[in-house]
């Protein structure tokens, strides 16, 4: 029992310049778990309705994702719809139907409580705290969150930040939380809030990893076409913690590699809709893409 | 005679959150020449008025910058004033007094016409074409430009682009010139306009180097304080071509190093006003900062 991932499971409807899809696999933990599965066997905690497609369950099982913590409840699966503007400058939420996710109360199977790695994928920080309350181990905990919770559940989030080892947020969220637009000063303030490790995601500009006074910058891969950026951040953090859970090495040098593999998987994610871009990769795909990151950033 | 730099020489007045300065050395070729001087002996072509401070001439000479091409004309030196908003999101031009720069007609001393490297720092593209008309050599030519010329002198600029080996522009200018917001597609369009080498500067997010189908990304150094971003782009390209002129190696791997050293000097530039941050460095300063780039980006 190495890694548990707690987050949302959804069926998404996405409209983008490159096309549209309906009722496709979505939610933070779908992306996180599939991405992590390239490095370890993740254990997924979430809730779906009775309408959750058997094909997606099969996809999860094909990725050796343990589903003992995935509850199937009477009702419909969480559904989200979004539309991207040309150039992905803007995303409009078309609808949010929480359905069975509205009363989601993550209960860890006993076997999960001793996991060495916990990924709190993006859900309400109150629920994320509740997950940590159930843990029996001194796990390495990675926290993902979003602007909504900074706005509406700040107290819960601040409590939670004192309990986690790493926070992964985007640049706008870092500014919201710290009132700092300078990345170095924002990272220092975030460290003072609790997490020892800070990752600030910058979209196509890559990501910054901070630990103590050290910084690592991974660039974004230059891609000629982006089809669907949904889940890229979830994919990044899923691959990152999957790589960590496999390597069990928390040195700065190994964290750099975790960040690079997070970026590798995220770069595949945006090249297709939903989880399509990350569902059918093999080792050589990952190696080839890793080599592109080497050529692009090593001198 | 290795490198000539043609650009503006000015006295700047700058208001920024960290303070204000008046009549300090500015203009594209001041920054370019001082930055290049850490790698080679640049030859500067420009014009100043009779009021140009002797101290700045001494500073140039201390940097072993050849001034045979710097004309001193009756009248006042070009003056520019600018104000930066908090966080440097916005720069307001307070005044532009062209003075002797208004009728600048760059005339190359004969000895300069066989230079192997030419940096066309930011001035009107008509004048930049005029500089190339005077060259007797098959020099490696690097072009810098700005949004003003894309708006007001596009035909001259497009003619010029067919004559240069490398263009260095920022992301907004790349979008203006190509109507592409995707960096990969923008670079391809820029290559089709003439230059074999494309550099897109992204401010604090670093820069991208494109050659044929290859891409190199250098991150921006994470600095806790930026005092004055004026001239950072000029400093970047000055150091870059200075490094090239010293190494005479146009392989992709060496161009990567040129881009890194451009970034090293630019990171010093923004830490102080005017050319203060780049005027008094020694070899160990450059090595230490280079090592910071290694730690920050190598895995």
What does this 3D model show about the protein?
The structure is a homodimer of 299-residue chains. With 299 residues, chain A is α/β, with parallel strands linked by helices. The N and C termini of chain A lie far apart (39 Å). The first copy, chain A, has eleven helices and 13 strands. In chain A, helix 3 packs parallel to helix 5 (154-161) and helix 9 (252-269) packs across helix 11 (283-297). The longest helix of chain A has 18 residues, at 252-269. A nine-stranded mixed β-sheet of chain A has the order 5-4-1-8-9-10-11-12-13, sandwiched between helices. A four-stranded mixed β-sheet of chain A has the order 3-2-6-7. The A-B interface holds A 87, 181-185, 187, 202, 204-206, 208, 214-220, 222-226, 253, 256-257, 260, 295-299 and B 87, 181-185, 187, 202, 204-206, 208, 214-220, 222-226, 253, 256-257, 260, 295-299.
Helical element count of chain A?
A: 11
| Unreliable segments of 5+ consecutive residues of chain A | none
Quaternary organisation: homodimer
Strand content of chain A: 25-35%
CATH superfamily of chain A: Ribokinase
- Overall CATH architecture of chain A: 3-Layer(aba) Sandwich
**CATH fold descriptor of chain A:** UDP-N-acetylmuramoyl-L-alanine:D-glutamate ligase
As a percent range, the share of helical residues of chain A equals: 25-40%
* Structural Rg of chain A: 18 Å
Distance between the termini of chain A: 39 Å
Sheet of most strands of chain A: 9 strands, mixed
Count of extended strands of chain A: 13
Alpha-beta classification of chain A: alpha/beta
Kindly report the spatial arrangement of strands forming the biggest sheet of chain A. Answer: 5-4-1-8-9-10-11-12-13
**Biggest interface, and residues per chain?**
A-B, 33 and 33 residues
Provide the number of structural domains of chain A.
Answer: 1
Mean pLDDT of chain A: 96
Shape of chain A: globular
SSE topology string of chain A: EEEHEHEEEEHEHHEHHEEEHHHH
Overall CATH class of chain A: Alpha Beta
């Amino acid at each position: 029992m190495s890694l548990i991932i707690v987050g949302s499971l959804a069926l998404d409807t996405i409209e983008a310049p490159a096309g549209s899809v309906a009722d496709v696999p979505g939610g933070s933990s779908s992306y996180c778990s599939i991405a992590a599965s390239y490095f370890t066997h993740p254990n997924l905690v979430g809730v779906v309705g009775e309408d959750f497609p058997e094909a997606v369950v099969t996809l999860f099982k094909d990725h050796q994702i343990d589903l003992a913590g995935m509850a199937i409840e009477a009702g419909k699966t969480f559904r989200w719809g979004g539309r991207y503007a040309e150039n992905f400058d803007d995303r409009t939420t078309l609808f949010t139907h929480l359905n069975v996710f509205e009363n989601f109360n993550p209960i860890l199977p006993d076997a999960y409580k001793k996991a060495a790695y916990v990924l709190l994928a993006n859900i309400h920080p109150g629920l994320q705290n509740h997950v940590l309350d159930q843990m029996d181990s001194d796990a390495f905990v990675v926290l993902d969150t979003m602007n909504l919770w900074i706005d509406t559940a700040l107290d819960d989030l601040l409590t939670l930040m004192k309990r986690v080892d790493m926070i992964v947020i985007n640049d706008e969220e870092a500014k919201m939380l710290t009132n700092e637009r300078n990345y170095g000063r924002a990272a220092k303030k975030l460290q003072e809030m609790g997490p020892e490790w800070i990752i600030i995601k910058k979209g196509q500009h890559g990501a910054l990893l901070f630990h103590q006074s050290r910084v690592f910058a991974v660039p974004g891969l230059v891609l000629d076409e982006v089809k669907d950026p949904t889940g890229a951040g979830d994919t990044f953090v899923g691959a990152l913690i999957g790589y960590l859970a496999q390597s069990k090495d928390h040195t700065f040098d190994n964290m750099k590699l975790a960040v690079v593999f997070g970026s590798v998987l995220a770069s595949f994610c945006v090249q297709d809709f939903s989880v399509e871009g990350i569902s059918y990769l093999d080792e050589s795909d990952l190696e080839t893409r890793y080599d592109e990151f080497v050529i692009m950033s090593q001198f």
